[in-house]
Amino acid sequence: xxxxxxxxxxxxxxxxxxxxxxxxxxxxxxxxxxxxxxxxxxxxxxxxxxxxxxxxxxxxxxxxxxxxxxxxxxxxxxxxxxxxxxxxxxxxxxxxxxxxxxxxxxxxxxxxxxxxxxxxxxxxxxxxxxxxxxxxxxxxxxxxxxxxxxxxxxxxxxxxxxxxxxxxxxxxxxxxxxxxxxxxxxxxxxxxxxxxxxxxxxxxxxxxxxxxxxxxxxxxxxxxxxxxxxxxxxxxxxxxxxxxxxxxxxxxxxxxxxxxxxxxxxxxxxxxxxxxxxxxxxxxxxxxxxxxxxxxxxxxxxxxxxxxxxxxxxxxxxxxxxxxxxxxxxxxxxxxxxxxxxxxxxxxxxxxxxxxxxxxxxxxxxxxxxxxxxxxxxxxxxxxxxxxxxxxxxxxxxxxxxxxxxxxxxxxxxxxxxxxxxxxxxxxxxxxxxxxxxxxxxxxxxxxxxxxxxxxxxxxxxxxxxxxxxxxxxxxxxxxxxxxxxxxxxxxxxxxxxxxxxxxxxxxxxxxxxxxxxxxxxxxxxxxxxxxxxxxxxxxxxxxxxxxxxxxxxxxxx
Length: 558
Description:
Layout: H1 11-18, E1 26-28, E2 73-77, E3 80-84, H2 128-131, E4 133-135, H3 140-143, H4 163-180, H5 185-197, H6 201-214, H7 219-232, H8 235-248, H9 253-265, H10 269-281, H11 287-299, H12 303-316, H13 321-333, H14 337-387, H15 391-404, H16 410-421, H17 425-438, H18 443-455, H19 459-472, H20 477-490, H21 494-507, H22 511-523, H23 527-540, H24 545-556
Antiparallel strand pairs: 1-4, 2-3
Helix pairs in contact: 4-5, 4-14, 5-6, 5-14, 6-7, 7-8, 7-9, 8-9, 9-10, 9-11, 10-11, 11-12, 11-13, 12-13, 13-14, 14-15, 15-16, 16-17, 17-18, 18-19, 18-20, 19-20, 20-21, 20-22, 21-22, 22-23, 23-24
């Protein structure tokens, strides 16, 4: 059979002529591995570690595949029968989990991002939604109102909410993880965190050493062990563990800074400088590390060197209070009184602000700290349960984490991913509404919102969501791909859909985007261009399921 019809007839027109239904595909397949660390900038669903402040490695890239449902549309073209199928995929969002309660230092801090909620290195089994999620338009009984929003059933919290109650809940879930998954290093890591929160650092140390038996290069355990040893004043053992960890993770910023601070405490100034500059050579310098090196230079009376690294520190972090003071000292010693005065004034303003902030923190820190910490424990627990094929338990944990911390974004993002995988657009839209309220200028939330509207076939709202995302970030590739798909499904603005898909491909040449572009080209009757784009998708990912099926169709009409 010829690779292209004798007469080019747009697929849309042919389908209308024969009144056949078109089934649209919404899918993500997230079962590819990712290494621990910033959680992810990619949509939750691939293999990912729990969010933890101690893990700073970048996640490795993953390929998403798609599985499809099709209904063939038969019609006559140029004297022979052709069989066409419409392919469309939901855009793969750029989502990432960061570790701990703060933004990952290595990631772009402008927006929180999404990532796949999967945890252990060797999951016992994958969740169905994480291996072959086939997205269809949600049935009317799932979508709730036409807007697709329904209330979320949050866990009931006691009033008043006490630190003891929260710690008890953290212990319950951590004990459950440790018992169910004794060989999962991340489950054991969560267990250790709960003991540390309760003040039992001895038991926490034992568990973290056990983590290193399970995984000898487990970075979070090294960082936690070193910090406990430093607080105990055991600098020799702390240094030994820090160097062991750095041998496995030379780019680990926090561990390198811990080693530098240990050396500074012992007055080993040249080693402090060598340690910090070694990290700088690897491209992993940090304001804190540079500040430590500056202190060593100042003790050696090398104020010109101190000035150099302190200027870099305040460039990286303009509101680094202590660095401004130290820089003022070195500038004064070097005779630059005007520069010294300028940085003293900056220091004074920052100091006053810090004092006010610290006073406010001290008024609520006890229970608020416990609240944030336990919320983080439930977030990590949800990741681990999800990775072990227990999505219901994962959802319970993320809902608890979000309830404990009303301003938490990470647990809510994990819920959004879960609801996308489970085809629960009503619940997903309710969570996205909260995320938009928490981070109104984060375009990722608008893209997630658009995907849910695509699932309930509310194309007007989907288009509006993707346009809002682009207004916030004109370079957001997922928003271009999503908007292209919305136009394709609505069967309008096909030329614009192709232009949008081309933009998505230019911004990020992902296989999924090439497939969307191929669909747009086929809709416009440009079969040759459709084939070329499918070939590009397969060049990037030869196992991309949807691209392979589309390639077979374009070649053989089946």
